[in-house]
Amino acid sequence: QVQLVESGGGLVQPGGSLRLSCAASGSSYTIRQAAWYRQAPGKQRELVAGITRYGGTNYADSVKGRFTISRDSAKNTVYLQMNILKPEDTAVYYCNAFLSSFNYWGQGTQVTVSS
User: Fold this and answer.
1) Using an 8 Å Cβ cutoff, are 69 and 51 in contact?
2) Mean pLDDT, the chain cut into blocks of 10 residues (115 residues total)
3) How far apart are CA 69 and CA 47, in angstroms?
4) Which residues have CB under 8 Å from 91's CB, separation 6+?
5) Are the C-beta atoms of 77 and 23 separated by less than 8 Å?
């Protein structure tokens, strides 16, 4: 059974950093295109960052210069490095990825930015 398992969320003070991980398991395929989304209470899920199969990246305007998406093909894992975190970054963060032509979602990891 193919799974995307996220980790790295938690409580952090404003200005702090976290690194989220999204590891694929149960598949012989490596992650190709992937993205991180987030959903805050009462809001729609939004795209935070994406990475193409060729390594190109894109970011929401609200996180540009603070967040970095990357991929380690050997570990079949995608990361989201989050720096200079703000209270408005508080949300459940979800990983989305394509393995071969199939699309998968992770279960979500909570990120809370608060003093």
Assistant:
1) yes
2) 93 98 88 95 97 96 98 95 98 95 94 97
3) 12
4) 38, 39, 40, 43, 110, 111
5) yes
